[in-house]
Design brief:
Blueprint lengths: L4 E3 L7 H14 L8 H9 L3 E6 L2 E11 L3 E9 L8 H10 L4 E6 L2 H9 L3 E2 L2 H8 L3 H6 L17 E6 H4 L21
Parallel strand pairs: 4-5
Antiparallel strand pairs: 1-2, 2-3, 3-4, 5-7, 6-7
Length: 190
């Protein structure tokens, strides 16, 4: 990949296509938000979707929703599979994490948790989460009536509360390699 730019604004003519793309990805992960099309369009119109563009094509995005004056929620992220490892994620996260003092993510995906810890996120207790954001996002994630399509198969114990504190974790790891998503193989393969 030769060049890309990160922006939170695209021409209005592309609004529908971008919203469809983001929505299609979010529907697959029921623990992420926003929950509804209305919430997604409001987030997009408020400039809370950071896009990576290459030759006027969306190749990645990060969605952060405001949660009070000091905090935001990392509500979704995506980079096209063929472009992963080309620093797009780094650029998107730099843009998104610089907007608020705290960025919070609630997820049940262990792979996402591993990557977020690599980026400087730390495990957060529900009590600290309420202290930071001033509201309880935990109940929003575990209430069966609030889970997308009524799915409630996420166990509370499987949820990870993670927080990025810009004052503490505001360091980047430019030379570090992200954790491998492949399981380690034991022994030599012949």
């Amino acid at each position: 990949m030769d060049r890309f730019e990160v922006t939170s604004r695209v021409p209005h003519a592309q609004r529908g296509a971008v919203l469809d793309l983001v929505h299609d990805i979010l529907v697959r992960e029921h623990a992420l938000s926003p929950r509804t099309w209305k919430e997604l369009t409001e987030a997009y119109d408020a400039g809370n979707v950071c896009l990576a563009l290459s030759h006027d094509e969306v190749v990645g995005w990060v969605l952060c929703l405001p949660r009070g004056r000091r905090a935001q929620e990392l509500a979704g992220a995506y980079v096209a599979p063929e472009l992963r490892g080309s620093r797009i994620t780094s650029a998107l996260l730099r843009e998104a994490l610089g907007r608020r003092l705290f960025t919070v993510c609630v997820t049940s995906d262990p792979k996402l948790t591993k990557y977020l810890r690599w980026w400087g996120f730390q495990t957060c207790s529900p009590r600290r989460l309420v202290k930071i954001t001033g509201l309880s996002m935990l109940w929003d994630r575990i209430s069966p009536s609030r889970l997308r399509f009524g799915r409630s198969y996420v166990r509370v114990a499987a949820l990870q509360l993670l927080v990025f504190d810009r004052a503490v974790s505001g360091r980047w790891l430019p030379a570090a390699k992200p954790p491998s998503s492949r399981p380690r193989q034991k022994g030599r393969q012949g």
